[in-house]
Write a structure and sequence with these properties.
292 residues, binds magnesium ion, binds ligand C2E, eight-stranded mixed β-barrel, alpha/beta, single chain
């Protein structure tokens, strides 16, 4: 505990540091108990096909109902989970829960609705992902092609050989692989050739400025065109306005995701969305041409 009597610059700095260390230790302690206390849940955000005009999938997004701090989003705790190795049991829970929920959509008769799951670089590097996925698919009965794992570019820069072999194993199982946050890293385009990627997710930072900045508009257009030439599907994330959606549909972006189409929601609410015959937001862009 810092002493009031030593309230000079040095002491303040130390006090701040101690607080940060303490905060981090507390978070780590809480994280260790969170799984067994059932404090994690998955939210689901709709992914909307601009070709078929319907929901074709959802991204599973982790939430932590912290007993004191309320509902926490991954940026507030995922790095601690990664550094402590807690990401391994947590990741196993996430993949299992996502597959179980997607299998339920299928049992409810909604057809082929896919689920996308974020996987940390730390999870992939520690290995075991293919086995975890296999077990989750077997347990849930979800067909492999309805599971998509979202990996980030950073992963591919750091450890391409081992990552490549994990991706091949997943591909052999029939699981899909998406490149998340596309465009935020380096030499992104070459990854599409080197790695067996099914989908790229154009990062929100490009999507947000697509109708206001000419450069971002041309980047998005060329990413879509190039991905399609390589047989890769394109998802735009962070779609917030009808203008952004219109631009993306006009340039043949396959799938739209963002607050405009639906925020991340609890499992019950997403199931309710699936029950709607027509997506309520279709009214925003009813006259846009779809794929030619
Ligand atoms: P991400 O995979 O790029 O996910 C997209 C993030 O953008 C999500 O934040 C989502 O809630 C938010 N988002 C969606 N639509 C919009 C929009 O229209 N506008 C804006 N401004 N934001 C939007 P979230 O849920 O806080 O997740 C943040 C990041 O945490 C994710 O980025 C992902 O990298 C990571 N993450 C989330 N769930 C998991 C998980 O289960 N496992 C792991 N390892 N990482 C996860
Ligand atoms: Mg993601
Ligand atoms: Mg991400
Ligand atoms: Mg992203």
């Amino acid at each position: 505990r810092a002493h009031e009597s030593h309230a000079n610059g040095v002491c303040y700095y130390t006090e701040g540091m101690n607080n940060r260390v303490l905060e981090r230790l507390t978070l780590e302690r809480d994280l260790r108990m969170a799984l067994s206390r059932d404090e994690f849940s998955l939210y689901f955000q709709p992914q909307f096909s601009s070709v078929e005009n319907r929901i074709v999938g959802a991204e599973a997004l982790l939430r932590w109902q912290h007993p004191q701090r309320g509902l926490l989003r991954p940026p507030e705790f995922i790095s601690v989970a990664e550094e402590t190795g807690l990401i391994v049991p947590l990741g196993e829970w996430i993949i299992g829960a996502a597959c179980a929920e997607a299998a339920r959509w299928r049992r409810d008769g909604h057809g082929a609705i896919a689920v996308a799951v974020n996987v940390s670089p730390a999870e992939v590097r520690r290995g075991g992902i293919p086995a975890v996925v296999r077990a989750a698919l077997d347990r849930s009965g979800l067909p492999a092609h309805l599971l998509e794992l979202e990996l980030t570019e950073t992963l591919m820069i750091d450890s391409s050989e081992s990552v490549l072999s994990v991706m091949r194993e997943l591909k052999n199982m029939g699981v899909k692989v998406a490149l998340d946050d596309f465009g935020t890293g380096y030499s992104s385009l070459s990854y599409l050739r080197r790695f067996p990627v099914d989908t790229v997710k154009i990062d929100q930072s490009f999507v947000h400025t697509v109708v206001t900045q000419a450069e971002d508009a041309s980047i998005v257009r060329s990413v879509i065109a190039m991905a399609h030439e390589l047989g890769v599907e394109v998802i735009a994330e962070g779609v917030e306005t009808p203008e952004q959606a219109a631009f993306l549909r006009r340039h043949h972006c396959d799938v739209l995701q963002g607050y405009l189409l639906g925020e991340p929601m609890v499992a019950d609410a997403f199931r309710h969305q699936l029950d709607q015959p027509v997506h309520p937001l279709l009214q925003h862009f009813p006259h846009e041409p779809t794929h030619a």
